[in-house]
Amino acid sequence: PSPRSSVIIIGAGVSGLSAAKVLAENGIGDLLILEASDRIGGRIRKEKFGDVSVELGAGWIAGVGGKESNPVWEIAAKLGLRTCFSDYSNARYNIYDRSGKIFPSGIAADSYKKAVDSAIQKLKGRESNCVEDATNRTDFTLQVEQPIFAFPCLDAKKSNANENILVFSFMHLEFWIEVEPISTYVDFGEREFLVADERGYEYLLYKMAEEFLFTSEGKILDNRLKLNKVVRELQHSRNGVTVKTEDGCVYEADYVILSASIGVLQSDLISFRPPLPRWKTEAIEKCDVMVYTKIFLKFPYKFWPCGPGKEFFIYAHERRGYYTFWQPLNTAIPGIHLKLAADLLLCHQHMENAYPGSNILVVTLTNDESKRVESQSDEETLKEAMVVLRDMFGTDIPDATDILVPRWWNNRFQRCSYSNYPMISNNQVINDIKAPVGRIFFTGEHTSERFNGYVHGGHLAGIDTSKAVLEEMRKDERQNDKQNQNF
Ligand code: FAD
Question: Can you tell me the distance from the alpha carbon of 311 to that of 283, in angstroms, rounded to the nearest whole number?
């Protein structure tokens, strides 16, 4: 049997590694990290596609330029990670209908504004699921949701920071308008930067791991990190936790920090003995999971418009969310070496130069469309995407030569892209999701009250959880001291 550890951390994503680092810095040398997959990083993951690295998971550092500094931005800056300012303000001027016509910007802007005003009125009236035909073209369904990173607010520009977040469809497109203060933007600033570094966003995690785990030549060789260890059972009591993995190993610890995603917690991957109390399972069920998929398509040459104002294009189709948001990778990835914050504003102007030959388009799908595409073959997805592109750009465009479809939903170690708390939910849900059960502590982006859904949410949650565990350990020590004195 393995020696008993003080703390076992389940999961080596950003939250698990941040938690482990704080523990190590506080003298907990006998920690153990069990990771189900064959790599660290979790939902931060790069993959080689064509000649470049693409980010299948988190791509942006959101929340930059505000009064407080985003800790992930700080780490990225220290490492010199290449990033690029993302500007969404022109997206609404690049809307194509099915016949390849671009909506005149005046009409698009007018209808858009009407739809926004009207949606805000509806929201104020606290009605939900209403359908209105405000202008013959505008058919909007009011829904309240968390923003999607790449296009949270398009042109609504977080102008009214005191209300709520709104999702509505306009000409059958889904738009997200932020009308509620999103803590990320309020605290850290409204800018977003795309990570455009060959080493990947995950480089940040390797560097973090390097600070407390033994590494050599870019590889982690420390036996306190165990990969391919799928935790299936947590048996817990007043005295400790027994962790069982799929390959039949058993590990013992005083405490466990569990960083598996909300999607995993909702699945039956990990069982608890005794079972989790009802307040916990109910809270876990209440949190929605978002699936968000970036599909990458490689072409022999570039046929789409590019240049300033053409960073995104949008496809209008009667089916909501059907291959709607497109982004050329070579325009989305400029190369700047991030050293001085002042450089950041300049990078926008150098966009064309980064990977001029990559000829990659990225299309973003969410929820039902993501799940549908995950369940079909990549060839089918490629065919569908080509029909859409030919609608927009004509029949003589070349076929894509390669496609990459990440599968976050079907991955049993993820089961989601990120958590999405219902708008009207009270803080009790997130507090219950975060609250420990005996010696099992919960962490991960879904436990971050202010920043759930984001990399910095995961990072800060990991730090918080490990501090809570350290506090418990100190309490144990004090109690032991007292008992010893009594003897
Ligand atoms: P994870 O990264 O999921 O880490 C949990 C780890 O636990 C995983 O490695 C998993 O393999 C492991 N695990 C699960 N079950 C077990 C088990 N039973 N036993 C052992 N190990 C287990 N955030 C941003 O800030 N900006 C973005 O632009 C952005 N875009 C995104 C785009 C996509 C497509 C996705 C998927 C996410 C995006 N996010 C973005 C969110 C961000 O990636 C996450 O919030 C963050 O990475 C979550 O970190 P975590 O540590 O909480 O969870």
Answer: 39
